[in-house]
Structures are given as structure tokens and as C-alpha cells.
Amino acid sequence: MQLVLEKRAERSNTIALVSPLIAIGLTIATMIVLFAILGKNPLLALHAYFIAPLTDGYSLQEIAVKATPLVMIAIGLSLCYLANAWNIGAEGQFLIGAVAGSWIAVKTQGTDAGAWVLPAMLVLAAAAGALYALIPAICKVKFGASEILTSLMLVYVADLFLDYLVRGPWRDPHGFNFPTTAEFDPVATVPLLIEGGRLHLGSIIALLVVAAAAILLGRTIKGFEIRVVGAAPRAARFGGFNANQLVILTFAVSGALAGLAGIIEVAGPVGHLQPGISPGYGFTAIIVAFLGRLNPLGILIAGLFLALTFIGGEQAQIAMKIPLDVTKVFQGILLFYVLACDSLILYRFKLVFPNRQVARGTH
Amino acid sequence: MQAHQRMLDPTPNGLHSGEAPLLQTIGLTKRYGDFLANDSIDIDIWPKQIHALLGENGAGKSTLVKAIYGLIQPSAGEIRWQGAPIVLSGPSEARSRGVGMVFQHFSLFDNLTVAENVALGLDGKESFKDMSARLEQVSKTYGLPLDPRREVWQLSVGERQRIEIVRALMQDPKFLILDEPTAVLTPQEADQLFIVLERLKAEGRAILYISHKLEEVKRLCDTATILRGGKTVETCNPRLETAASLARMMVGSEVKEVKAAAGRQTTVPRLVVNDLSLTPSEAHGVRLEHISFELKGGEILGIAGVAGNGQDELFAALSGERLSKDPGTVVIEGIAAGHLSITQRRKLGAAFVPEERLGHGTAPRMKLSENALLTGHAASGMVRHGFIDTAATLKTVDRATETFDVRKAKRDPEAASLSGGNLQKFIVGREILRNPAVLVVSQPTWGVDAGAAAVIRQALLDLATAGAAVLVTSQDLDEIAEIADRIAVMFHGRLSAPLATSEATREKLGLLMGGSSLEPKEAAHAVGA
């Protein structure tokens, strides 16, 4: 008797929906082993990770706040990945967006600039993120440079650029030499949805982005173009679609969304520009995109789930002294299982019995 | 059942009685999921015989051969080698027992030399020098001339096949399997191959010859086993059968004859190619050189030629997948289109059917309706203000299904789930339903069952009758002769002057396919025809 992987005649839609759940199940099983090895009670740890954050209002809001950048970035990335363009540098585009938007906030600081400030910040951040993403896209199209490497390397450029600004020209003169800008003026701040709470307007924007992406991919010829270029490049060219133009377009859109997420984070929950504004949103969003099956609705759910792991990780650290890095281990294992489970969409397991038995059995 | 089979065994000599066949399959069954690719197949292979394996695409020929060659494990049944049951763990075990195979699709590295390619495919431990010497000697002995030092990309398709044959022969096989070997050869090259095969047979080897060319099988083979739908239909002596009776056994019913409408009128030129030259975009691609022809409405022009002589490049240049700097090189409906994209050319009324169904003509993992949109988005009212009209795409699927008898499991399945013939009917149907002025189609019935092939050829004829200009590229000379009004031949990126089909004998076409030119006088005459 042996276990074989057998190709399915047609992709299984059931498994396409279930496979992320299987992946989550396997990840949790692995985490139980890991917690046990760390000498922590696995059940308590899992409770701290996945249940406790769901039981109080503050944590629930915080999950939505953390999910907002994840979902926005992941939607952009999913467009790239569907079109076979591998943008790994969303973290950099996020930071550049934050920097560009903050420029307006810093320059209008203390002036009586009106309500135009925040919209201008959002627009500039999106434009800057898009332009920053266009660097690897154009290098790929013009020179054949691997966008995976160039987009990733530009993350560090953005990171150090932000660092320079907040330690140098933009440093708050009254900030006791901390590397941070002054707190943004109210007109440069993303309004809260609930007075005194954490939830802000950015979450609404993220939902709008999800809806727009769902319409784009499901209903429009542009969305079809994105899907077909990724799924069958030669057929796409035969259909009259230009893969290079699409690399440019999807990188620009995903860069814009990442930049937008960056300024919303800075002008929202953080309130000023400083190093470390992102706990790796741009990278975690890659996991969100794949866990969500590159589907807008799936990404919304996956974004909330991964936000839960961030919050849960903090709680587990506080309550059980489990290192915060375990959250990253969890996310890595999850991506691994998600990609592994995806093979079940096109293949299925089958038990095969030795030849003779079958021969006697059926004839 | 075995006894029954043995009694029917039509092998002409009685030598077999008492001794076991060289290779035998008994009740060989291969199941893929719910699909029975081979259903209890019995076949006996005797030494000193050329045994034909006949069947349509999907009949189970490849599956059977893969099981015999150890590439796949049968689900049930057994394989006997010289009377003893064996289980083959892989092709190298099959080779070590004396089974050699020449695949239809060559597995050669373009940038390596002939000798290096052969060395990669051999299991032995002899030195490269000894191997090269033996290679030269084997190729000389069998009249398969090869220069071991040449790189594969410089060789013609026929020469590449020689490498595969010599590689198989260097292992001194008792049993050689050839999968559609003449599909890529000119008639003259095929004749040379038959001489080699006769010689191998005389040496006492057994040969399993997979083909669907019935005349060839009648001429060459001693026994024929016919498969249909994964089952053995018949084992017979092909020399005692007619091509029609063999076809009937393969297809299971009479094959519908393709009929051209009488008195087809040609009208104005709808596709004109003027001195088209194009450097290849890929390494080792073929350069198109000074290609010119004119195709009128109501006319079918066939382009024959061995694969890899620039047909793919010509298709790309005509479709707009590759653009030409000079707009005048390709003229569609009187409009210079050499610089226009494929979408713009479709808007001018051109339609295209590429050779490769999956991955080029369709996106395999997308639904048929989405694949209708793939080529229909330009000019078929499927898109309004950037939004897809799903109902319109589904309607195209339904109409193609109805008009061209596309068989599928549900209304809108993924392209990859259709059989080759049904998918090809869908692709051709998708284009014809757009009422194109010009249809450029490459290998319209390649790997398609006879029923579907007849439907497709008839559709091309009907389209021409309706006034469209149809350009058909095919390696199947019979197909071209059946539907084309004029035939031109591609060789090394050049296109011969077209001959009227009535004048285009196999000999003439074979010469052109091999690169020789016809008498100047004759060629001039043909152009005027």
C-alpha cells in the first residue's frame, strides 16, 4: 500500500476554500509542539494567542487597526502576484509613502493650513509609493532585472532614508533628541471612528480597497488581463495583452496602496514619523495575500487573522513570557503550510494497493 | 480469453507456436482516477516483426507504451518478457532488458553536441571517446549519417530524430518502440527511415510502430493492434486490410468525408504578405526571408513543410504577436497591418488559431467562457466600458458547442478538462463564429481524433466558401491536399511559390520540403496557376 499524489481533472473549488483552513490547523498543531518544547502550556499559549484578544473591545479594535495596513498592502500584492510580477518590496513602498505624506505634515506644522492637508498627504503618499515601486518594475521591463531582488533591496534604502530624516532634518527640536518628528497637527491626522477608541478612517479605506479589487478582478477586462497574464503568459500575448505594461501597472498600484497604508499608519495610530513604524507589515502582507488565496475577500479574512497573531503574540509575551519572535515563527510556518496545501487544489492523495490485488479484485 | 486471442493471431508464419513472444502484456490496465486509459490490453510482440499500434488520440497508445517502457506502473495486469512476468521500476530497467524507445518529442539539448546528447542518454560507463567512436560506427552501419561534433540546434528535425534512433540502437535493443516517427519527416526522409526499420527487422529485432498514417502501416507493418477508447479492438494483418477498414476500426464508425462546395469563387485579395523578412526573437529561431504571397477571399492556401522551418515565426508575424517595422509587409483587408497589434488585426477582421491548444490558444486553467473572452474581447461586444458581459461570453461558448459539437462535462468547464479534439473544435469555433475575413490557422487537426478533424476541415472549407481567406499551415500533407486550393512549402524561413493542389504531387512537395528547388520552368508555371 502506498500513498500517491494524483492530478485532478479539474481544480477543486472546495479544496481551494478549505486549504487555508487545513494550513491553519497544521500550523496550530506545529505550534503546540513548539510551545511544549519551550516548556509552556500549549493550551494556555493558544488561548493567549487566539482567544484572549477576541474577548475585549480594545483588542478587537487593535486587531482591525493592525489588519488595515496588512489588507491594503496585500490587495496590491495580490494583483502583482496574479500577474506574475513578484513585488517583495511592499515594506519599502510603505515607508516611502509614510515619508512622502509626512513631508506635508512636517512642512505645515504649526501653520493654519486647512482641511486639505490630510487628503494631500494621502495622495502624495500613494504617488510616492507608486513611483518607488516603479523603479524595480521599470528595471525588470527595460533591463530584465529580477524584480524580486531589486524590490527587496529598495526596502533597506527606504528604511535608511526614513532613519536619516527623523534623526536629521525632520527631528522634533523639542523631542529630547529622540529620532522622531513632532506630533502631527490635527488636520494632518487620520480621524478616529470612535471617540477615544483606536479604530480610524483607514479601516474604511481598506474595506473600499477590498471592494474595488473584487470588482476589478471579477468584472472588468483589466482584471481578466491580470489573471490571464499570470496564469498563461503565452495565451495572454495571443489575446493581445501586454505583460510588460501589466508589470508596470500592478507594481504601481501595489506601490500606491502600500504607500497609502504607510501614511495612514503614521498619520493614524502612530501620530508622527519615527523609525520602526512597521513591525514588518510589508512582509507579513505577503503571507496575507497567499493565505487569502490572492482573492480580495480571502485577503480581508486573512488580514484579520494575521493581525490577531500580532496582538496575540504581544499578549502571550506579557502573560506567559513567550518571546515576541514566536509570532514571526508562527507566520513563517503558516506560509509554508499554505503553499504546501495549495498543491491539493490540483492534486489529491490516493491510496494505491499492490497491482495483483486489484487485478484479482476487478476482473 | 487468451486462447481465443491466440487463435485470432494472424501472424503469417507458424513459427510462434510453442515459444513465448518477446514481450507480452496480459490484461494490462492503467487507471487515472476514474478514467481507464488502458482497459485490459493484451498484445504480443514477436521478434523479426514490425508491429503497428494504431489508434486515435486518446485511444491509449501512449499509456500502453509508457507502461511497456517502465515510465508508468500499470494499475493491473502484467507484462511478460520472454515468457516471464516482470515489473519494470523505470525506463533504465526496460533499457537494460533490451527495450529502446524513440519518442515523438525529442529530448535533446540544443546547445550540446550530438555526442554529448547521446552520452547523456546512455546508462553505460564507457569513456566519452569510446562512446563517440561507437556512435559514429553505429550511425554508419545503419545509414543514419550523423556528425557527433555538431551542436543540435544546427540540425534539421530529421537529423535530430536520427540522434534519438542512434541513441536507442547503441544499446543494441531487442525491441524498439517508435512513436509517430514520420510525423516530422519529408516523404523522402520517411522512405529512408523505412529502409532502416526493415533492416532492424531483418536483424531479428522486434519493432512497435505507433502511427495513425494508415498507408504507411499497410506498407511497413506485419501486424497491427488497433486500440480504441483504451481497449484492444482488433489485432490483424494490415496488408490484408484497406485503409478504410483500418480507419473504421480506429474510429468505430465511418469517418465523414469532407466536401468542398463546388464552384468556389475567389474574390479580392484579403491577406497579402509583401517581402516579409524577420530576424528571430529567440536564439536558434528561424529567420524569415523575403516571404510574399497573396490570398484572395474564397481561397485556402496550404503551407506545408517540416516543423521548425519558420512556420511558428510566420504565424507570429501574421498574427501580430511579433511586429514588423514596415507596415506594408502584412496587409489585411487592404490595410497595412505589419505594425499593428494582434488586437488591432482582429479588429480588421483577422482571426488566428495557433498550433498549441493549451497555453497558447487557451489559458488551460481558465473556463471556456474566459477563453472565449481571450480572443473575443477585441471585437465581439463582450466588453462594455471595461466591464465584461459574462452572458455574451457564455453565449459564445454555447454557440460554439452547438455549431461544432463540442463535448464537455458541463456548460463552462476549464479548457484543460476537454479532450484535444473537443478543445480544438471550440478554438476553431470561437474564431469562425466571429465571421473573420481572414483566418490564419496552424496545424488545425494536430493530435485530434478523426471525427473532430473532419468537423474542423469542413468548417474551414465552409468558411472559405462564405468568402473568407484561409491560410492553413500543416505538416500533414494529406490534410493540405484535402482542403487547400494552392500549396506552398516552407523551408529554412523561405516560402516556395504556391503550386495548384492538382499539380502538387507528393514528390514535388517532398523535394521542396527537403530544400531542393523545382525546375524553374515548372515553378514559373505554378505561380501563374
What secondary-structure arrangement, pairings included, does this model have?
The complex is a heterodimer of chains A (363) and B (529).
Chain A: E1 2-7, H1 13-38, H2 42-51, H3 57-82, H4 90-107, H5 117-143, H6 147-167, H7 201-219, H8 221-231, H9 233-238, H10 243-270, H11 281-291, H12 296-320, H13 325-346, E2 347-352, H14 355-362
Chain B: H1 2-8, E1 23-32, E2 35-45, E3 50-54, H2 61-68, E4 76-81, E5 84-86, H3 91-97, E6 99-102, H4 114-121, H5 128-141, H6 157-169, E7 175-179, H7 187-202, E8 206-211, H8 214-220, E9 223-228, E10 231-236, H9 243-251, E11 269-278, E12 288-296, E13 300-304, H10 311-319, E14 330-332, E15 335-336, H11 342-347, E16 350-353, H12 368-376, E17 383-384, E18 387-388, H13 390-404, H14 420-432, E19 438-442, H15 450-465, E20 469-473, H16 477-483, E21 486-491, E22 494-495, E23 499-500, H17 506-513, H18 520-528
Parallel strand pairs in B: 3-8, 3-9, 6-7, 7-8, 13-20, 13-21, 16-19, 19-20
Antiparallel strand pairs in B: 1-2, 1-4, 4-5, 9-10, 11-12, 11-14, 14-15, 17-18, 21-22, 21-23
Helix pairs in contact in B: 4-5, 4-6, 12-13, 12-14, 13-14, 14-15
